[in-house]
Amino acid sequence: MKALRYAAWDVLEMATVDDPVPTAGEAVLQVAAVGICGSEVEAVAARSPRRTPPLVMGHEFCGEIVAVAPDVTEFKVGDRVVASSLIPCGRCASCRAGAVHLCPDRGIFGMNRPGAFAERVAAPARVLLPLPERVSPVQGALVEPLANGVHVWSRLEQKFPETVMVIGCGAIGLLALQVARAGGALRLVAVDTSDARLAMAHAVGAEPLLNPVRDAVVSEIRAFTRGRGADVVIDAAGTAATRRTAVEAVRPGGEVVWIGTHGDATELSGRDVVLGERRISGSYAVTYDDLRTAVALFAHGRIEIEPWVRPFPLDEGARVFRELLTAPSADYAKALLLP
Length: 339
Ligand SMILES: [Zn+2]
Ligand SMILES: [Zn+2]
What we know:
Layout: E1 2-8, E2 11-16, E3 26-35, H1 38-46, E4 60-68, E5 80-83, E6 86-87, H2 93-96, E7 107-108, E8 120-124, E9 128-130, H3 137-141, H4 143-154, E10 163-167, H5 171-182, E11 187-191, H6 195-203, E12 209-210, H7 217-224, E13 230-235, H8 240-249, E14 250-258, H9 270-275, E15 279-282, H10 288-299, E16 309-313, H11 317-326, E17 334-338
Parallel strand pairs: 10-11, 10-13, 11-12, 13-14, 14-15, 16-17
Antiparallel strand pairs: 1-2, 3-4, 3-8, 3-17, 4-5, 5-9, 6-7
């Protein structure tokens, strides 16, 4: 079969690879659509040891089952499914507590087993969820990133935050904004250094829009909130500067969720956190509940993707990757491949 192969450091190319055969507990999917994740672009750019070529990447995918191992009873050939990107061990304390995303022995598609930048991919049936007919293949490939936005929302204790600010309007930020809207947030503030990305945020419901290149984000957000600050700030960029802005922009008693991982060490005002009882949580990956919620949000038409998602044929994958690595287009925030 055809696959977009990460053949060597800096080299992505179309290749012919062996067709997957389902081993015990597995199904093989005909991939309908697969997203290119920012983490994969970053891994290639940084020659990350977590993704070592030769490798077929791709962990955000959906498709139709074309083969199952004899012991698989929950799915059959012809079923439409979406996969979790993680393959938890199912036995450890985290897995038994339902926190499968924190499993220390988790596998990941396109990292320690072949991913879905290919015509077909094998997947353990236990990490698959049914995909309803009314959820399109392109939406199906966005279930995993949308579930990341749902997971962010699940980290919050406030039930009805009035003002939610999202820093970083890449795919995760644009999805987190829409989860916040579906979750009842009344005002969505988007922050990004790119006006093109802010226009995408506006198209999915954010208003006002702040660009830190020209706007003093913290004083602007205070002006919108009678001097208090946002109830919730989600940092989907993850630099030291954006994490600091998130903490400075949230009101006393408010909540900050960090999901980006661009930078690591971050200097913050400890007094802002202590004297204002501001809470900071991390958000990593997704649970099966998050995935089910994401499927439901798509099924009920709550998520806009037209303004910022662009599908390409799998054959163009190497070119699209090169573009994302060198000169990302301002026309879209998320590229998908259609095998
Ligand atoms: Zn991803
Ligand atoms: Zn586990």
